[in-house]
Design brief:
single chain; alpha/beta; Aspartate Aminotransferase, domain 2; Aspartate Aminotransferase, domain 1; 2 domains; seven-stranded mixed β-sheet; three-stranded antiparallel β-sheet; globular
Length: about 375
């Protein structure tokens, strides 16, 4: 059995090596390293894949979130609602722009933002909601859309972990995660379902005016060189990364399907374990693309399990060990512990097992057998 990786990027690369290498070399020989034809090609192909009118590539997923907020012309003190249980990027960009983050607890089954919590958090200062499609599963976008429409709020979808997943509406229609709200954002960090070989990100929207603003912001606020119409930033997806992503985009559905198959195999192995809660998929099978395969361990031995697995060369991760409301950088007297009962619980229970496109049955057997052995 080959070495178990948390994410096997080398194995994935080897299967498409000749295509990637040829594309990278063509980009280098073209010397079009910034905003070259490779970026435009990837942009068009991603627009087609997502069935969205506008894709604006940028340098990384955190920039994508910041630029999305900048495009909405919010004012200092305006409130933005986002989940407490997620990576720091969401609250980070809110604070960097002088806005006020309003953290909300999560749904214990999906780890996504709790819809009732959104309703309770809305005030006269609320301007936007940032739902995070955590671990690969789309949040309850039908309900979030209703809330946003009733209260005239913007929705920015953080789709860094869920590219390729679908949300199915009551009428049976589907939309890709990231294309449902006013703006969607994503990351092409190497470990993502669609990962570059460096940093990268993108912003999506159906709105022509927002797209125009977003395109200006990513390029120093310029539409004509040296004429700055907006306060912008320098955030570009470089041509080499775009050329790699353009190749890998053709495989994204296959990659996501491989992750779903691996998740189903994990679930089968853990189905009779009373101390394990496996990931719950809400709605159609394509609602979850398993960026992470995250268990809840109920016997209060999660940390011991982490050590046990690491001692046997089985990688694992805790995403996330500390809620945002308890992080030193983001602490505020506005937050009460009683408002985050679910988050405070799951940070002590969650553990993510290896999840990627190259997992083999013998690796899955090995990993799950040691998890079960420890818990029994």
């Amino acid at each position: 059995m080959k070495k178990i990786e948390m994410v096997d990027l080398r194995g994935q690369y080897q299967k498409i090596q000749s295509k990637v290498d040829d594309s990278v070399l063509k980009t280098i020989n073209s010397a079009s390293f910034i905003n070259g034809p490779q970026v435009k090609s990837f942009q068009k192909h991603l627009e087609k894949y997502l069935r969205v009118k506008h894709v604006i590539p940028c340098a990384n997923g955190t920039d994508a979130l910041q630029i999305a907020l900048m495009a909405l012309d919010l004012k200092p003190g305006d409130e933005v609602i986002t989940p407490d249980f997620t990576y720091a990027s969401t609250i980070e960009v809110i604070l960097l722009l002088g806005l006020t983050p309003v953290l909300v607890d999560i749904d214990i089954d999906t780890f996504n933002i709790d819809v009732s919590g959104i309703k309770n958090a809305i005030s006269s200062k609320t301007k936007a909601i940032i739902p995070v499609h955590l671990f690969g599963q789309v949040a309850s976008m039908n309900k979030i859309l209703e809330i946003a429409q009733e209260n005239d709020l913007y929705i920015i979808e953080d789709n860094a972990q869920s590219l390729g997943s679908n949300f199915t509406f009551k009428d049976g229609s589907k939309k890709k995660a990231g294309t449902i709200g006013h703006i969607g954002t994503t990351s092409f960090f190497p470990s993502k379902n669609l990962g570059a070989y460096g940093d990268g990100g993108a912003i999506f929207t159906e709105d022509d005016d927002l797209a125009h603003t977003l395109r200006g912001i990513v390029n120093h606020g310029m539409y004509v060189r040296y004429y700055h119409d907006l306060v912008g930033v320098n955030s570009r997806l470089d041509s080499i990364q775009a050329s790699i992503l353009d190749i890998k985009l053709d495989y994204l559905d296959d990659y996501n399907n491989s992750r779903c198959i691996a998740a189903s195999k994990y679930n089968l192995r853990f189905k009779d374990q009373s101390n394990i809660i496996t990931p719950i998929r809400v709605g159609e099978r394509d609602s979850h693309v398993f960026h992470q395969y995250t268990l809840r361990i109920l016997n209060r031995k999660r940390d011991e399990l982490v050590k046990y697995l690491n001692d046997r060369n089985i990688p694992c991760g805790i995403y996330y060990p500390v809620p945002l409301h308890l992080q030193k950088a983001y602490k505020s007297n506005r937050y009460n512990q009683s408002d985050f009962k679910v988050t405070n619980q799951v940070v002590k229970e969650v553990i993510s097992l290896p999840m990627h496109t190259e997992l083999t049955d013998d690796q899955l057997d090995y990993i799950s057998s040691y998890v079960i052995k420890f818990l029994n």
